Amino acid sequence: MFEKRSTPKMSKLKEVHSPESGVIVKTAKDGNAEGLIYGGGGKDGIFIKEVVPESPASKNLKVKEGDQILSATVYFDNVSYEDAIQILEHAQAYKVKLCLKRKPHITEAESAIESDIIPVTIFKFSAISGV
Known about the structure:
Blueprint: H1 8-14, E1 36-40, E2 46-51, H2 56-60, E3 68-69, H3 81-90
Antiparallel strand pairs: 1-2, 2-3
């Protein structure tokens, strides 16, 4: 009477058979890694060995034991200068991707179209008293 059909999403999920395959999961920006216990290393990669119950990581990050960490982004808002420099110095030997804010001065030789520059407009609002 009814035909069994799989949706494209279902068939894509069924294609994940081997231990080498998996799903990429991105966590929320405001997550905190406090409460994660790591394992592995070397060629095998870094894995979440344990998530401490009731820790900030268990509440804010959607990680599970056994997840492999492929990369991490550290946001420098509310990070001390010393800690930020230490993080950057430790990262010197590795592949990194930076998010930069630059004063708007693009020369003719450096057009925004030919580079990876993403223009951003920052607005500053101030309260006007008596209005």
